[in-house]
Amino acid sequence: MSKRLLLLNVLLVSGAAVFSVQLVRTFLAAPPLPSPRGAPPPQAAGPATEVRARVSVPLAAYDGVASKNLFNPSRSEAGTASVAPTSKPFLYGIVLKDGAPAAFLEDPVTKKVTSYKIGDSLAGGQLERIEADRVVIRRGEGTFEVLLRDPQKPRAVAAAQPPAASRQPGAQPQPAGGPAVRAPQPPPTLFRRPQLPVAPPVRNAPDS
């Protein structure tokens, strides 16, 4: 038995050795694997440079900048502030006195009605003439008129009055703002019926 086991072990070891040798030869004799097909390696991009053409500017173009120097003491403002146009006032009344006429006009800025005389300043101008139905104001080199009955003049809104209540004949008006208070009336007079005289009862005489 021992010989058989020894022979079997020798066969197994020799077979394993042969298998190992064949495996090593297979790996050594195998051809190299082909390289994978891919995109070519990216090339290192160099720093992008922007080429800008230099435009030559003549020196005469900077004359305007030199003339508007902020630190120049003789520098003056180029433009002037425009004056907002003044609106037209409204005429509400005229008083014609001997030698001292007056006009009541509403200032378009303050919205107040004030009495003005000839020569007073008003609405950016000066009151030049007062007539029966208009006034003349001089503003700058020209004049304009303000009519007493100007259709553009705002009218005062009258307060709404409650409708008149229908009155019955003999009814007294009731004060508004509270319930009606009735005047005390005398109590009604009681009339008593006159008492009639009561007749005495009649007694019958007894029969004899």
Which key phrases capture this entry?
alpha+beta, single chain, 7 strands, 16% helix, 17% strand, 3-stranded antiparallel β-sheet, 208 residues, SH3 type barrels
Could you characterize what this model shows?
The chain has 208 residues and is an alpha+beta fold. The chain has a domain at 90-147: SH3 type barrels. The chain contains 2 helices and 7 strands; from the N terminus they run H-H-E-E-E-E-E-E-E. It has helices at 2-29, 63-67; strands spanning 90-95, 102-106, 113-116, 121-122, 125-130, 134-139, 142-147. The strands form 2 sheets. The protein has a 4-stranded antiparallel β-sheet, with no helix packed on it. Strands 1-2-3 form a 3-stranded antiparallel β-sheet, with no helix packed on it. A hairpin with a 2-residue loop joins strand 4 (121-122) and strand 5 (125-130). The radius of gyration is 64 Å and the shape is flat.
CATH-derived architecture of the domain at 90-147:
Roll
What is the helix content? 10-25%
Low-confidence stretches: 78-84
User: Which CATH C-level class of the domain at 90-147 is it?
Assistant: Mainly Beta
CATH-defined topology of the domain at 90-147: SH3 type barrels
Major beta sheet, strand line-up:
4-5-6-7
**What's the total count of β strands?**
7
Going by helix content, strand content and strand pairing, the class is: alpha+beta
Strand content: 15-25%
N-to-C span: 191 Å
What is the mean pLDDT?
70
The description of the largest β-sheet is: 4 strands, antiparallel
How many helices? The count is: 2
Give the ordered list of helices and strands.
HHEEEEEEE
Cα Rg? 64 Å
What global shape is seen?
flat
